Amino acid sequence: MANNSYSGVKNPAGEANHDGEFGCSLKELRALMELRGAEGINKVQECYGDVNGLCSRLKSSPVDGLTGQPADIDKRKAEFGQNFIPPKKPKTFLQLVWEALQDVTLIILEVAAIVSLGLSFYHPPDTTDAAGGVEDEGEAHAGWIEGAAILLSVICVVLVTAFNDWSKEKQFRGLQSRIEQEQKFTVVRSGQVIQIPVAEIVVGDIAQIKYGVTTQTVVRSQGRTHVMEGSGKMLVTAVGVNSQTGIIFTLLGAGDDEEDDEDDDEKKKEKEKKKEKKNKKQDGSVENRKKAKAQDGAAMEMQPLNSDEGAEREEKRKANLPKKEKSVLQGKLTKLAVQIGKAGLVMSAITVIILVVLFAVDTFWLQELPWVKECTPIYIQFFVKFFIIGVTVLVVAVPEGLPLAVTISLAYSVKKMMKDNNLVRHLDACETMGNATAICSDKTGTLTMNRMTVVQAYIADKHYRRVPEPELVPSSIMDLLILGIGVNCAYTTKIMSPEKEGGLPRQVGNKTECALLGFALDLKRDYQAIRNEIPEERLYKVYTFNSVRKSMSTVLKNADGSFRMFSKGASEILLKKCYKILTASGEPKVFRPRDRDDMMKKVIEPMASEGLRTICLAYRDFPATDGEPDWDNETDILTSLTCMCVVGIEDPVRPEVPDAIRKCQRAGITVRMVTGDNINTARAIATKCGILQPGDEFLCLEGKEFNRRIRNEKGEIEQERIDKIWPKLRVLARSSPTDKHTLVKGIIDSTVIEQRQVVAVTGDGTNDGPALKKADVGFAMGIAGTDVAKEASDIILTDDNFSSIVKAVMWGRNVYDSISKFLQFQLTVNVVAVIVAFTGACITQDSPLKAVQMLWVNLIMDTFASLALATEPPTEALLLRKPYGRNKPLISRTMMKNILGHGVYQLTIIFTLLFAGERMFDIDSGRNTPLHAPPTEHYTIVFNTFVMMQLFNEINARKIHGERNVFEGIFNNLIFCSIVFGTFIIQIVIVQFGGKPFSCQGLTIDQWLWCIFLGFGCLLWGQVISSIPTSRLKFLKTAGHGTQKEEIPEEELDEMEDLDEIDHAERELRRGQILWFRGLNRIQTQMDVVSAFQSGTSFQGAVRRQPSSGSQHHDVTYVSSPSHVAFSTATAATASATVGCECVFP
């Protein structure tokens, strides 16, 4: 290990020692923290004697920990800092306003409005004839109003957009703080083992760690320090910004604003450098390795600059791995928005050109008027008016409300899902869950209640169908049994008194161990007395449970120098290691293979067929005469055991699970159970849950058999072999986490079924991490899950309940439907508004819908409609159809029928009113009015009817699958009702009191009733459209297809080679641009870290840079011996910097 010295960050606080309050200063602890391995141990021994000496200096006890007194905790926080790393500052409201103002169409509109405003104040000499008929002077003075109104409308749009962004950011910061608050760590204070929030850890705390815990609790990223084996205690010596992680965060600018903006020239230079580096990869890597060897004695390989061979191998490996596709829905939407935007741009350009040409032909050719110099501003004013009409056509055509609708829908769903016990960590998981076709679920705690109790036992040659009375068990066996249970269950596991009188005792810790401790209590014996007599420090050796051993063993040293080992584990595995069994007399007798087979048939299989988990309890004595055994040789140690008893543990199926699984199956989702239990137990539970039905021909396999079937003669996994198994597989028993990962990967990569499978996985253990990462959506258990599992997941089930997954499916499908509803509504408005503006402009040389009116319509379409339609609550009906699939277009043929059908009705009404409205209502015509003429009743009726039709069509848009009852459940969505009613009230105000700014003239009651009636006609027309079978309309096409992976150009795929995921939304939006920024940021991060740690400092844990403008975080993972620096990109979770701590192990 390299000699580590830190020279990057100075902290003057380290100088002070508060008049010797503690025996060592912050500066000393930071110096100690920089040392690793033997150097660290030597330093502790040299300065403090041992870890106990360091504990006494920090006024802490290795056994009892800190006192926990508030005054003491506050002193420690003041002296050594808090366990908190400041997150990046959120954007202020004004910054968000400025960002919203960057919208190109709004900028164009602002410029046009300012030009219009300026020209309206110019009054030329008497040139009325030349100007082509300008209105009288009084009306000319009101010319400024339109420009001002457009500016005001733009301000409204900007403020609404900024407020939405601000509330979204606030919501996700709240979500992250909830995740952080829920993260707890086990420490010893005043001799009691308690759980405290991670942020409350202070220097001097004695932390208890065990298998599956994250010890360097820093950021939710890929590379933290995880306990993979064993358990123990550690002394916390640095927290927050003073820990190694905190120092690195300070280096990389945590808590400061990132430099988001780079100079364009610099970017070009960097890009050229990057190309050069790519061409000179080999030279760079050799030089790099030489430098690293000079410093560290071991090659420090930079992955982006590593050796040619290594790079090729890595590239091939990554190219072969299928990438996880994310934000598929947003990718489709962005692509659709771009296509509609292009069409709108073409339409607006044609509108402007036609208006200009018609004006020029009419004024200078037909009327033969000369171009008078004084009238130039008047002509420019006409051209500006035409330009504003063109821009408003573009504003209406460009569906900027689409991303807003997605954001609102996802944010609303995430908020509501938290109430349904789904804590969403990655936003796109919500949308992906709607397409799920398969769920691979754990059994314990997810399908079952995770409240385990021993209900049967085989003890002293007798099979008891219920827990035996204590007097029936020989005292010698009883003493051994209680001793074995007491010491061979984690000391953090305990049975506590019920919270409410008359309730069940509380189970704390591992539930299987809780069942055994409960068994001891049922036998009227106290396990705690054993633990008081033999504290955890006196345990000589502990072999903790893991997925390979499937057992746990604890060794005690006796007074005479001999050893006794107690073991517990899966009965069929542990019984194979037993050569003796205790009889009714309490004496051991030889346990032959045929005896074991008899026990399997008569005891274990009957227990398992009833859905019980069978656990064997055994022990072994090591005589003092044989000397101390080689404890590292597990094969020899875990053999020659004596069986004490076999117990059957019941974990009842959650009462709501069978119904939830039925809903999944009806919704076209296949549920598979993947468990570590034996096949009989698994099959029995699967049948109770409804995963297996009597008479089904589905497969139930054990892990060994599964591996045998999917591997070829060379032991390699073949996809073709997996494809023969997974469609019929329903239960995978005695499986390892590797089997789970293999199954998930096999299903995702399969091409047997035309539609690509979308797989959700549940997991709670440390080794479930790879499967959770690989799955399209990973669910971690919030209660039983380890930190590692939670970190690898997309959604955390706060109640560990399978029925919560079904709710996630409902919300996911609801997001998709909400977006489709919004699209159906918006595209109808788009088509009608653009055609009306275009045709009206071409025929009457003016748009029937004025610029400010268009902006109001745009506000209804975008912000209000997205709020109303994207917040529809999900219904059970969503689970009555099959998953859409990733390739389904956003706009189905039924939706296209609705869009075109309602478009025809609305255009017919608008054009009838436009060209015959003055005769129908006996009013003056609004066509061909002068430049600044006052508003007319005619055009006001056109505008009002148009808005009324949109309001009633919004109700139609609530149904997208051809349903007739569009009012069903309408009062369940108060937001929708409020917005429709509110829009109607505002429309009355605009029409009756809007006047010149809104180009409106107040209407009579009769005219209002006609407008409302024509709007209501949309609902009646909707029933007519629903009666036409979509299958008859062969000409209808779908729209809104996403870009398939196969369609992505090779160059872009090459750019994405170092990514684990393809973000479709990002790709569609930025194309190759964002990939370049990502590469640049990675190199910058790399150079920051290398320059700061030139002396070879290696550190564990992960460093995540704070998010810059995009949604990318950058992880840096250091692995020692040889020091290998790997740079990887992780998509933004909801987390940013939280906390860090450094520790010394006693």
Automatic annotation (TrEMBL):
Q: Name one GO biological process term.
A: regulation of cytosolic calcium ion concentration
Keyword annotations? ATP-binding, Calcium, Calcium transport, Calmodulin-binding, Cell membrane, Ion transport, Magnesium, Membrane, Metal-binding, Nucleotide-binding, Phosphoprotein, Translocase, Transmembrane, Transmembrane helix, Transport
Please give the InterPro entries that the UniProt record associates with this protein: ATP_Ca_trans_C, ATPase_P-typ_cation-transptr_C, ATPase_P-typ_cation-transptr_N, ATPase_P-typ_cyto_dom_N, ATPase_P-typ_P_site, ATPase_P-typ_TM_dom_sf, ATPase_P-typ_transduc_dom_A_sf, HAD-like_sf
Which residue range or ranges hold the Cation-transporting P-type ATPase N-terminal domain? Answer: 45-121
Q: Name one Pfam family in it.
A: Hydrolase_3
Q: Where is the composition biased (Acidic residues)?
A: 255-265
Disordered: annotated span: 255-323
Question: Which molecular-function annotation in GO is an example for this chain?
Answer: ATP binding
Entry EC no(s)? 7.2.2.10
Does the record carry Iron-sulfur as a key word?
no
- What spans are recorded as compositionally biased (Basic and acidic residues)? 313-323
State a GO cellular component annotated for this protein: plasma membrane
What CDD domains does the record point to? Answer: P-type_ATPase_Ca_PMCA-like (cd02081)
Bilayer topology: Multi-pass membrane protein
Question: Would I find Cell inner membrane among this entry's keywords?
Answer: no
The record's subcellular locations are: Cell membrane; Membrane
Q: Quote the biased-composition stretches of kind Basic residues, using this chain's numbering.
A: 270-280
- Which reaction does this chain catalyze? Ca(2+)(in) + ATP + H2O = Ca(2+)(out) + ADP + phosphate + H(+)
NCBIfam families attached to this UniProt entry: ATPase-IIB_Ca (TIGR01517), ATPase_P-type (TIGR01494)
Query: By its UniProt entry, which PANTHER family does this protein fall under?
Result: CATION TRANSPORTING ATPASE, PLASMA MEMBRANE CALCIUM-TRANSPORTING ATPASE 1
Can you say what this protein is called? Calcium-transporting ATPase
